[in-house]
Amino acid sequence: MSVGKKVAQGCHASVIAVENARKMAPAVLGSWGNEGQRKIALKVKSEEELVDIYQFAKAMHLPCCIIQDAGFTQLEPGTKTAVGIGPALTSEIDKITRTLKLL
């Protein structure tokens, strides 16, 4: 993916994860909003790893989402491109992402 495509996919994931947090964890969402709305972009090695991370976050009952591309530009339709996790406690997200490198 191009840099612009990565940014767009990450933005999709961020927006949807926040909407999920609005339903699942409104108090945490409020704190996150008051504390600067931290967002960290990390990278994975494969689509399979991306799905594994999403499944782990889902199993931990964290607000999360996985983005599938529509296929209009650079990718095949249905390609999984990004995962949004949180807002949630850093200690919970770190259980999932601590081994990933910054994008």
How many discrete domains?
1
CATH topology annotation = Bit1
Distance between the termini: 13 Å
CATH class: Alpha Beta
Q: Let me know the largest β-sheet.
A: 2 strands, antiparallel
The shape, in one word, is: globular
CATH superfamily: Bit1
SSE ordering: HHEHEEHE
Strand content: 5-15%
Q: Number of helical segments?
A: 4
Radius of gyration: 13 Å
In a few lines, what is going on in this structure?
The protein contains 4 helices and 4 strands, in the order H-H-E-H-E-E-H-E. By secondary structure, it is of the alpha+beta class.
What are its keywords?
single chain, alpha+beta, Bit1, two-stranded antiparallel sheet, about 15% strand
Characterization of this structure:
With 103 residues, the protein is α+β, with helices and mostly antiparallel strands. It has a single domain (3-102), classed as Bit1, CATH 3.40.1490.10. Helix content is 50%, strand content 15%. The protein has helices at residues 3-24, 26-34, 47-59, 90-97, and strands at residues 42-43, 64-68, 80-85, 101-102. The strands form two sheets. A two-stranded antiparallel ribbon has the order 1-4. Strands 2-3 form a two-stranded antiparallel sheet. The longest helix is centred in the first third of the chain and has 22 residues, at 3-24. The radius of gyration is 13 Å and the shape is globular. The chain starts with a helix and ends with a strand. The mean pLDDT is 96.
